[in-house]
Every structure is written in structure tokens, then in C-alpha cells.
């Protein structure tokens, strides 16, 4: 198994140790109106000795030339594993919503489902629920994020393959 335990990691985080570090790459998506797009993403999972991982993600829309065209989104949050391999994730988005996801850790695969979403009055998208799948494949971080809004049922939203940097 390809399990990594970074130095100084709280033992409660051992199951998530493989996530720790910086990841970068490109992905594809479909926005809430059904338009396809390509993006670049930077994710960092870090720890401070406590029993949670700190998560920060930035995405940038890519132009036709493949260069960053404009900021697309920012998320930050906390990943809190439990002894029974369950996981609680709390995320806040610059787009005006906060989401709580619950899930399971299966070695280098993580499945998450929305438990609750709270949106601000000015939220850019009426995000209602989601599911996420994260996994380590050939040393890369791959994920798929499905989302529902007030306007549409759960459907694919973003997916990417990121490399550790």
C-alpha cells in the first residue's frame, strides 16, 4: 500500500497522511448553466499537530491558449477523521456558501456526501448538495465533484488529476 505518514503528524490523522502536501494540475468542469470549462487547480493539505488537516484550494479558469484567464474559485476548510474511518469535512467557499460533508476513508480513497449547506444571500450559485470522490492513483490526487443547485439535480461539476509539487 502507498501510505505516507509525514513527520509530526498527529496519530489521529494517519489515514489522511497521504493527502498532506501541495498538489497542482488541470481539470475539467461543467458550470451550473451546463457550460464546459477547463481549469488549473492548486490544493494544499497541511497540519499543525492537531487532529485535523487544513485544506486550501484555488482554481483558475483557463483560456483558449491554456493560460490562466481568471480566478474561478477558492475553498478552505478542515478535514477531521474519526477512529472508525469516517470523516467530517467543513468547507467554506469564496462564492458565498459553507458545506459540511460526511464520508468514509478506504485507504487512499475518500467518499464524501453533503450533510448541510448554508448560503449567503449573495451566493453566486444556489449550491444545495454534493458528493466528492478523492483518490490516489499512480501517485497523483484525482477527484470528482458532483453538485446540485436549486436549478438542477446532482450532476458532474468538476474533475481533475493533480500532481504533488
UniProtKB/TrEMBL annotation:
- Which molecular-function annotation in GO is an example for this chain? metal ion binding
Q: Where is this motif: GXWXGXG?
A: 21-27
What Gene3D superfamilies does this protein map onto? 2.40.128.20
Report the top EC class in one word. isomerase
| Pathway annotation | Nitrogen metabolism
How is the cofactor bound, as the UniProt entry phrases it?
Binds 1 heme b group per subunit, that coordinates a highly solvent-exposed Fe(III) atom.
CDD domains hit by this protein? lipocalin_heme-bd-THAP4-like (cd07828)
Alphabetically sorted, this entry's keywords are: Heme, Iron, Isomerase, Metal-binding
List, separated by semicolons, the cofactors it needs: heme b
Q: Which reaction does it catalyse?
A: peroxynitrite = nitrate
EC numbers: 5.99.-.-
Q: One Pfam family for this entry, by name? A: THAP4_heme-bd
SUPFAM superfamilies to which the protein is assigned, alphabetical: Lipocalins (SSF50814)
Sites where the protein binds heme b:
157
Q: Which residues form the THAP4-like heme-binding domain?
A: 13-164
What does it do?
Heme-binding protein able to scavenge peroxynitrite and to protect free L-tyrosine against peroxynitrite-mediated nitration, by acting as a peroxynitrite isomerase that converts peroxynitrite to nitrate. Therefore, this protein likely plays a role in peroxynitrite sensing and in the detoxification of reactive nitrogen and oxygen species (RNS and ROS, respectively). Is able to bind nitric oxide (NO) in vitro, but may act as a sensor of peroxynitrite levels in vivo.
The record's listing under HAMAP family reads: nitrobindin (MF_01297)
* Family recorded in the similarity comment: Belongs to the nitrobindin family.
Per the record, what about its domains? Forms a 10-stranded antiparallel beta-barrel structure able to accommodate a hydrophobic ligand in its interior. In fact, this fold hosts the heme group, which is located in a wide surface cleft.
- Spell out the protein name for this chain: Peroxynitrite isomerase
> What organism does the UniProt record list as the source?
Tessaracoccus flavus
Q: What is the lineage of its organism?
A: Bacteria, Bacillati, Actinomycetota, Actinomycetes, Propionibacteriales
Amino acid at each position: 500500500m502507498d501510505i505516507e505518514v509525514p513527520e509530526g503528524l498527529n496519530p489521529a490523522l494517519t489515514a489522511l497522511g497521504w493527502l498532506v502536501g501541495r498538489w497542482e494540475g488541470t481539470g475539467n468542469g461543467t458550470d451550473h448553466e451546463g457550460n464546459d470549462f477547463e481549469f488549473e487547480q492548486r490544493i494544499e493539505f497541511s497540519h499543525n499537530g492537531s487532529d485535523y488537516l487544513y485544506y486550501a484550494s484555488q482554481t483558475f479558469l483557463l483560456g483558449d491558449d491554456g493560460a490562466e484567464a481568471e480566478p474561478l474559485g477558492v475553498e478552505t476548510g478542515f478535514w477531521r477523521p474519526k477512529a472508525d474511518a469516517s470523516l467530517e469535512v467543513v468547507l467554506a467557499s469564496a462564492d458565498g456558501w459553507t458545506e459540511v460533508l460526511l464520508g468514509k476513508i478506504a485507504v487512499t480513497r475518500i467518499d464524501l456526501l453533503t450533510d448541510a449547506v448554508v448560503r449567503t444571500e449573495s451566493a453566486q450559485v444556489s449550491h444545495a448538495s454534493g458528493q466528492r470522490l478523492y483518490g490516489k492513483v499512480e501517485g497523483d490526487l484525482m477527484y470528482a465533484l458532483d453538485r446540485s443547485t436549486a436549478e438542477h439535480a446532482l450532476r458532474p461539476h468538476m474533475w481533475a488529476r493533480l500532481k504533488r509539487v
